[in-house]
Amino acid sequence: MQFRSPIDLLSQTADLCFPQLVNDSCRKPASLLSDTMFLHVTLSCISLITVVLNLIIIISVSHFRQLHTPTNTLLLSLAVSDFLVGLVSMPVDILRKTSCWYLGDFLCSLFMYVSYIITSASVGVMVLISVDRFVAICDPLHYPGRVTERRAKVCVCLCWLISALYNIILVKDELIQLGMHNSCHGECVIFVDSIIGTLDIVITFIAPVFVIVVLYMRVFVVAVSQARAMRSHVTAVTLQLSVATKKSELKAARTLGVLVLVFLLCFCPYYCFSIAGTELFDRFSEFVYYLFFFNSTLNPLIYTLLYPWFRKAVKLIVTLQILKPGSCETNIL
């Protein structure tokens, strides 16, 4: 019989997440300390930037009355989801991917559930933004009556509620039987049945992307025809009534079109990766995964480049001008 020295046993248990559970504990992720530190620092900085920038958007749209429009209500909802990604999803996922999971099975399932809600709600809001631009460009005369701030708020609330109810179906078994798919202690894994997973991809990705593309293709066709009409100096009465409205709406459509395009570029690789399987793109899995999260950082940067009101709002917030009485009535547009 071969006896192990205390030093051998100590070195063996040092690599375990829970040394006291020799037979049931997971091993710590095998990675270089320098690589792990670099990943932690980089992703932590991105997470902080995401939180700060989206918090500025939330404060801006909530505080300044000039920004209380149906379109900005949708942008506010998107900023809230991006803020939660930076505050919750990114930090917890960094912990889950690069080290042992010490927070227990309940928090693991809860974290997954919240992450699914945030992602689904973001996709839903993108569809609402596309519908908003479709109505604004294709039916501008009825847009103010059909798309109101109150209706936009109702749609946003329904979007989050449906997302919460829908995603509980995916994790209900995990919430009932905590850690049922964990192979060892120190692991945080959620298993989704292949049939349910395929259906989920169709509902939360393929169908919404199809709707977004179709609506924006229609918006693009109408925008091109409108631009040609304005260049040819058409003087029809109906055109004269709608040109002023369409000019500003077209500019908003272009700006939001950039937002939707970046969203698709960040989300499509992740879902394509999920459909194809990890074995096909193993080298790019980490890049695709973090690109998915990076969309939440890019959105406020798009506002910075394309929305003058956002830059002005940043200045007023940083200089604490919003604390002055009546600052909500500031002309920010």
UniProtKB/TrEMBL annotation:
* Annotated InterPro entries: GPCR_Rhodpsn (IPR000276), GPCR_Rhodpsn_7TM (IPR017452), TAAR (IPR050569)
Boundaries of every G-protein coupled receptors family 1 profile domain copy? 53-303
- The membrane spanning regions, by residue number, are 37-61, 73-90, 110-131, 152-171, 201-224, 256-276, 288-310
- GO MF annotation: an example: trace-amine receptor activity
* One Pfam family recorded for the sequence: 7tm_1
What are the record keywords, sorted?
Cell membrane, G-protein coupled receptor, Membrane, Receptor, Transducer, Transmembrane, Transmembrane helix
Q: How does it sit in the membrane?
A: Multi-pass membrane protein
Gene Ontology cellular-component terms for this entry are:
plasma membrane
Q: Where in or outside the cell is it found?
A: Cell membrane
Extract the PANTHER family matched here.
HISTAMINE RECEPTOR-RELATED G-PROTEIN COUPLED RECEPTOR, TRACE AMINE ASSOCIATED RECEPTOR 19P-RELATED
Please state which protein family the record places this protein in.
Answer: Belongs to the G-protein coupled receptor 1 family.
Q: What is this protein called?
A: Trace amine-associated receptor 13c-like
Q: What is the lineage of its organism?
A: Eukaryota, Metazoa, Chordata, Craniata, Vertebrata
